[in-house]
Write a structure and sequence with these properties.
This protein has 335 residues and is α/β, with parallel strands linked by helices. It has one domain: 3-Layer(aba) Sandwich (Rossmann fold), CATH 3.40.50.1820. It is 36% helix and 14% strand. An 8-stranded mixed β-sheet has the order 1-2-4-3-5-6-7-8, with helices on both faces.
Length: 335
Amino acid sequence: MHEAIETRELIVLDGLGDRLQATLHRPADRGASLYQGPAGQGRPGVLFLNSLSLPRAASGDSAVHWASSIAEQGYPAFRIDLPGLGDSEGEASPALLESINAGDLAPAAEAAIRQLVERFGLSGVVLFGHCAGAVSAAYAAAGSRDCKGLILLDPYFHLPQAKRPKLRRELSDWARRSTLGRLLSLLYDYGRNFLLLLAGSQPPGNANLNLLARWKQLAATRVPILLLKAPGIKAQGSKPRVGEFDYIAHVVKLAGRKSRVVTEFVESADHSFANREGREAVERHIAHWLAVNFPLANFTLSARSASPVRTANSRCEAEKSKAAPADLGCALEGR
């Protein structure tokens, strides 16, 4: 507990009129305090966004683990609850998944980026997003000049259903349990695969075209992007399941050869990346990617100012693990 108190602080940001609660993980080499300085002269920070309705600690406190690891490398890390989520003010949309897919949370994230850069003298911010959080991160990055990089875990580029119909869920469960069901499911997948081959490289009708356009715009700026992918249901190795459009290959191609998109497949992870193997693999990939793209030798921490950052509370936060509503679930549900 004492160590956590020494390395973390609660801070409050303005989310376009809503008070947003966030946690700062101080860089290990700065001791108990981080100092203000002119924007643009400090190190880059890493900002974690919510995944759907999960609080900023994420599944199994995985975001806490990764933010602490990033801070130990020397980069300030921030975990934020966007409006209506976790501990922050505001009302979450009743159709939260659709709202996220439309980019509705991006303006609040952009406002938070601006405040962090100015308040902590950062050279910029790397946005971290998982699943639905990766969608918000991509939208926010496209609209923010202070976003210097992206770390995306299992991003999706289609428009999924918030909840699959009960009959479809029951059929999926039966197909996984039954020998005949597995055979019929495989035949169905191959039928879909045939249709995808006929369509060529064009994304299917449920593609999030607005998000794909933002992605292309963002990748053209050559901002470094780390894309981590876990194996999907029925997928073998790094390949998508039979009959599933390969969005990862599509967005890498869309980014162009001059882009700085790095794609890694984390075979040992589940979708949450919160299992031990997945969490450790993500930690290793992030550490290497940050060291390559943002070597600390190129930055200074703005220590010339003697004014300590004012935070809402200097005690260690007690993370609230609010469960995501059952009717929302994972954004990948129903792909």
